[in-house]
Amino acid sequence: MKVVILDDYQDCVRTLKCFDKLSQHQVTLYHDNVKELHDLVLRLQDAEAVVLTRERTRITPELLDLLPNLKLVAQTGKVASHVDVAACHARGVTVTDGRGTGTATAELNLLLILASLRHLVPEVQRLQQGLWQGSLGRQLSGKKVGVLGFGRVGEGVCHLLKAFGAHPLVWGRESSLVKAKAQGYNTALSRTVFFQECDVVTLQLRLTPETKHFVSAADLAMMKEDAVLVNVSRAELIEPGALVAALKSGRPGFAAVDVYDNEPVLGAQDPLLSLSNCLCSPHLGFVERDNYETYFGMAFDNINAFAAGLPQNVVIP
To answer: What span, in angstroms and rounded, lies between the C-alpha atoms of 155 and 153?
Structure first.
């Protein structure tokens, strides 16, 4: 099959062990992101299968109508709203689902929390500038860390926090609260208590129509002046413009973010990057070699199964 792999930013997919699974196919890789319909059609016009790197490219009815050769959309990780599954199904295009672990994303949450509390990046920069210590950080042990959502990643974050001596406090849907309590974690008495009392708040919700803009400006305004907000999930979980305004007003006092409204962020064109009280990383949550082997390995298995006439992990609208 003619296979196109989109949005391989680091040109790393060909270095994965699982890439050998595509040895019987004609493979084309692209390392940048294009959003215009015309540009996507140029890249995909001959493709029989397209491999999506998570949610970096949208598959819309308009795009599908211009791709008569396309037979398969192989998703890395779980299919979300970026793929119009119903439109694919109506046009005879099969969509396959993938899987991954939440380990890499949970670990990045801890990395950003620790780096924020200890002012790691500015201290490293001071040293590179010929200076010595310039601030006094705080330890994670003993801190109350709010975990909004208790899915796979949220659960992993809680386990790691416990190992560091922190005190996780869970908030979310009733099912999340029940699950967290069953595992011995404390849950907040209310949304207000959650945002008011936590030293750190980390967002672990999956982006759905119900969770879009879930965190409001009023929520952020309730946080402590020295609190840290961490978002390694989705930028759209927060009300548009609310985090920038909150950081400028001083509640919370600091944020660490890995996700943005418009990605990729090039030329530092996001207002969060101009704030001294915000640590910004380029959506690294799932971007890790072991995770990639799992994500792409399953997507490639799905391509081979489809080519053999035995499609697996098919998503039905």
So the answer is: 5
